[in-house]
TrEMBL record:
Signal peptide residues on this chain, from the entry's feature table: none
Protein name in the entry: Splicing factor 3B subunit 6
RRM domain residues: 18-93
Alphabetized UniProt keyword annotations: mRNA processing, mRNA splicing, Nucleus, RNA-binding
Gene from which this protein is expressed: LOC103513105
Biological source species: Diaphorina citri
Record's subcellular location: Nucleus
Predominant place of localization: nucleus
Keyword flag Nucleotide-binding: no
Pfam families for the chain: RRM_1 (PF00076)
Species lineage: Eukaryota, Metazoa, Ecdysozoa, Arthropoda, Hexapoda
GO CC field: cytoplasm; nucleus
One of the GO biological process terms: mRNA splicing, via spliceosome
A GO term, aspect molecular function: mRNA binding
Coiled-coil spans in chain: none
Amino acid sequence: MAMSQRRANVRLPPEVNRVLYIRNLPYKITGDEMYDIFGKYGAIRQIRIGNTPDTRGTAFVVYEDIFDAKNACDHLSGFNVCNRYLVVLYYQPNKAFKRVDIDKKMEEIEKVKTKFGLHAEEK
């Protein structure tokens, strides 16, 4: 049986996708080092390393193939890089931005309340 036929029968959990979100990276890690670590598991389409104060120590790794991404996720969670243990997760856009959305909405609500003088008197 060909590899692709065998793979077609495999049911992957719904959260599995080609984009991995990596946390707890050393701040000074380079793109080349990332390719060395993650490239062992398959062809990589793109790596984005966080470079702002909020995103330092994180990266996105996009694989060409979902099975390579799953393999990397399974093997690299807890991998030691410069005495830091990697946290490797599947990227879930709805989860990643939910917290930010809630904060923004609360901010908007506060602005509207202030604009219309709706703040209840503190007791």
